[in-house]
Design brief:
The radius of gyration is 21 Å and the shape is elongated. Helix content is 32%, strand content 25%. The chain has 14 helices and 25 strands. Bound molecules: uridine-diphosphate-N-acetylglucosamine. Residues 23, 26, 93, 121-126, 162, 164-167, 192, 307-308, 330-331 line the site of uridine-diphosphate-N-acetylglucosamine. Pathway: Cell wall biogenesis; peptidoglycan biosynthesis.
């Protein structure tokens, strides 16, 4: 099992081109199942989750190959509509293959997915919506067996109780080739939903309203292949900005998606660092110790503060001047990284969905274990701020979402090795 060994205390400075978004790549790769002809995806990040999605595609008979950051997927010959339990368990996002497979073949068998340990992550909204679209769903021995009786799902009016990203994606994927019109009320507005819809439109789908709460999809019987560039990863962007800000450094990020990162940038700015943006660039300078964030940081669906950036900003605020308060409103169990910060000398109190962080002048190195993807990335930030050396184990979590993080940190002048 690989580990990261980090010696903290250096001021990080540098320039980096952001990788493509993981959370866009996965549903877009699933969406390629719906297309007749080659789908060429540029800016596809080299991540274990992306390779897990490619294995799912290959296992059902698609041809999926990579050259650098370009993936080419051909789904002309589907040989199976069943995704093995082993593949489903590799990542939670595998559940979006359910909607895509239904859209393609009118049936699928999947199992309850695996993924990050962020507390219970039910799929009740996904299943209820697909049932509303006429899909017959049976659960048997850990398998979910879905079938659209006429071979094609039917358009429906669906109102989500919560704007779930995954449920919105599954409905879109099933609806683009369904019979008739589907309306999703209270749809998720995350930029990655717009990226998925942008890709599907390039393949001939009829979708409007993405980025707003009401999405309308008119089913088309056939989609074609296309060439598409995946949007930059706004969470990786938030991670490197938090990292460099915490070490009082300076950073230029290129290939950034500035408007989509705004909900994070507006909070980071309150720590006193200077942030300048231009069309696809973000420049950050943080010459002195960060200030605590005065207003409570509440994670909310987009355009609120993203839950995926909670841990990485918290790591930076562990060494800020003053007290910051987080309120986690999306997931029940998303403070598991705080034990590692405390082990490094941070002062954090967690009570239910609230975490109170009293900034300390210094952290110290410690040996810790990554608990989940963003929590693990946050531990890297804490270790880079700490005096002395730290070891982070279970870095397979970090590799799910960051392309060679140690190389980026090395470019910034940090001391981080994979052993
Ligand atoms: C996606 C992102 C993840 C991000 C999250 C919230 C991907 C691959 N993952 O996850 O990085 O943290 O959005 O922005 O894009 N819920 C239910 N029932 C359901 C579905 C969801 O109760 O049927 C609950 C979940 O348990 C959670 C909340 O809704 O508490 C939000 O989940 P959702 O928006 O679905 O997140 P994901 O799509 O899993």
């Amino acid at each position: 099992m690989q580990k990261f060994v980090i010696t903290g205390g250096r001021r990080l400075c540098g320039e980096l081109a952001l990788q493509g978004s993981k959370n866009s790549s996965l549903p877009i790769m699933a969406a390629a199942l719906l297309c007749c002809g080659d789908c060429t995806l540029h800016s596809c990040p080299k991540l274990t989750d992306v390779y897990a999605a490619a294995r799912i595609l290959n296992c059902v008979g698609c041809k999926c190959s990579f050259e650098g950051n370009t993936a080419v997927i051909n789904s002309e010959n589907i040989g199976s509509t069943e995704i093995s339990e082993e593949l489903m368990r590799e990542m939670r996002s595998s559940i979006i293959f359910m909607g895509a497979m239904l859209g393609r073949a009118g049936e699928c068998t999947v199992s309850v997915p695996g993924g990050c340990e962020l507390g219970p992550r039910p799929i009740d909204m996904h299943l209820a919506a697909l049932r509303k679209m006429g899909v017959d769903i049976r659960e048997s021995g850990g398998s979910i067996i879905c079938k659209a009786p006429s071979g094609r799902a039917k358009g429906a009016k669906i109102s989500l109780a919560f704007p779930s990203v995954g449920a919105t994606e599954n409905i879109i994927l099933c609806a683009v080739t369904a019979d008739g019109e589907t309306v999703i009320n209270n749809a998720a507005r995350e930029p990655e939903i717009c990226d998925l819809c942008g890709f599907l439109r390039s393949c001939g789908a009829d979708i409007s309203g993405d980025g707003e709460s009401r999405i309308i999809i008119n089913g088309k019987h056939q989609l074609h292949g296309c060439e598409y560039t995946i949007m930059p990863d706004r969470i990786v962007c938030a991670t490197y900005l938090s990292m460099v800000a915490a070490t009082k450094g300076e950073l230029i990020l290129t290939n950034a998606c500035v408007p989509e990162t705004e909900p994070f940038l507006s909070v980071l700015e309150q720590t006193g660092c200077s942030i300048y943006t231009s069309e696809k660039k973000i420049y950050l300078r943080s010459g002195s110790r960060l200030r605590a964030v005065r207003d409570r940081i509440r994670t909310m669906p987009h355009p609120g503060f993203p839950t995926d950036a909670q841990a990485v900003l918290m790591a930076a605020l562990c060494v800020a001047d003053g007290t910051s308060v987080f309120e986690e409103n999306i997931f029940d169990c998303r403070y598991r990284h705080t034990d590692a910060f405390v082990k490094m000398g941070a002062d954090i109190q967690v009570l239910g969905k609230v975490a109170v962080i009293k900034g300390r002048e210094k952290l110290h190195g410690a040996n810790v274990e990554a608990t989940d993807l963003r929590g693990g990335a946050a531990m890297v930030i804490a270790a880079l701020c700490a005096e002395g050396s730290s070891e982070i184990s279970r870095i397979c979590h970090i590799d799910r979402g960051y392309e060679k993080m140690e190389e980026a940190v090395g470019l910034f002048g940090g001391d981080m090795r994979r052993v």
